[in-house]
Design goal:
alpha+beta; Ribosomal Protein S5, domain 2; Alpha-Beta Plaits; 2 domains; eight-stranded mixed β-sheet; four-stranded antiparallel β-sheet; 27% strand; globular; binds ligand DP6
Length: 324
């Protein structure tokens, strides 16, 4: 009745932006990501007799708010499936600095899905864990595998064909991902709210959907060929297109700060000087820079010298879920 799992977070190369089913977390488009080696969640789940409700302890704090409710709602799906009405104690250690702008929901729900299903002896394979993790947070479906991963959107109504698949192991291709933290004051709109508003109100959303398939084909090919420049060009274009689509929403969903713009211009100028370096941005102001390991050190140092850059954290492709 007790199990512990570890999952790393991931960064999307081709973005998931928009759901076709909010309850089952079914996406409008497929997405591709890299699982990272630095930021992770370790979660222990123990189903116990005599508990009146779930207890969620995150980084040693007892959570009694919406975070606890999200975890409980997720466990309800597993309780329904197994027929148990036991409650659980969930102890999570989250090593995803929120300031670094990585969504902790990806590693959080991947670790929770793996630990909870194992603690109830569900004996799920990775595909089924991906389907389960997806129902906590869409991007969590991809953190089940290491390296380069695709979450195929699927077409079925029940979501049984909407899960992640590994494209290339972390051992086969090493690239560098620098997480650039910029100064920011404003509170972000959550991805969940931002994508809903974009689908409902942005006239550009149909343009996003009509080109994302082509981006997916090009990124799969670039990963297969380990062609960094081809990968970087499509990845940067895809991220900028997602943000342009959000800007068309009413009211606009704007995640960028002045520091975001400073880093974008700087990376583009480095590229003009002949260095293969690209960027991507999620639902926040921070920029993730992609470069080759041979250029990692000088780019890291030069980014730190920009006035609006507060911190740079270097990551590489990492492994999928493990049980401890
Ligand atoms: C911009 O997976 O956090 O990072 O499914 O509502 O929990 P929910 O959203 P979430 O959205 C991630 C959005 C993104 C792009 C991506 O990771 O693909």
């Amino acid at each position: 009745m007790k199990a512990t799992a570890k999952a790393n977070t991931n960064i999307a190369l081709i973005k998931y932006w928009g759901k076709r089913d909010e309850n089952l977390f079914l996406p409008m488009n497929s997405s591709i990501s890299i699982t990272l080696d630095k930021f992770y969640t370790i979660t222990t789940v123990e189903f116990k007799e005599k508990l009146d409700s779930d207890i969620f302890i995150l980084n040693k704090n007892i959570e009694s708010n919406s975070e606890r409710d999200k975890v409980s709602r997720f466990l309800d799906r597993i309780r329904k499936r197994t027929g148990t009405n036991l409650h659980a104690e969930i102890i999570s250690e989250n090593k995803v600095p929120t300031a670094a702008g990585f969504a902790s929901s990806a590693s959080g729900f991947a670790a929770l899905a793996a630990a909870a299903s194992k603690s109830l002896n569900l004996d799920l394979d990775k595909k089924d864990i991906s389907i389960l993790a997806r129902q906590g947070s869409g991007s969590a479906s991809r953190s089940i595998y290491g390296g380069f991963v695709e979450w195929q959107k699927g077409i079925q109504k029940d979501g049984q064909d909407s899960f992640a698949k590994p494209l290339l192991s972390e051992k086969d291709w090493n690239i560098s991902i620098l997480s650039v933290v910029v100064a920011s004051k404003e509170k972000n709109v959550s991805s969940r709210e931002g994508m809903k508003r974009t689908i409902e109100t942005s006239p550009f959303y149909s343009g996003w959907l009509s080109t994302v398939e082509k981006d997916l084909v090009m990124v799969r090919e670039a990963i297969n060929a380990q062609d960094f420049e081809r990968l970087g060009e499509v990845v940067e274009g895809n991220a900028l297109k997602m943000h342009a689509t959000m800007l068309g929403a009413e009211p606009p969903v704007l995640y960028w700060q002045s520091g975001t713009m400073e880093v974008i211009h700087y990376i583009q100028s480095l590229r003009l000087s002949g260095i293969p370096v690209y960027l991507t941005i999620d639902a926040g102001p921070n920029v993730k820079v992609l470069c080759l390991p041979t250029d990692e050190k000088r780019i890291y140092e030069s980014l730190l010298s920009l006035p609006s850059v507060k911190e740079v954290i270097t990551c590489h492709p990492g492994e999928g879920i493990t049980y401890l």
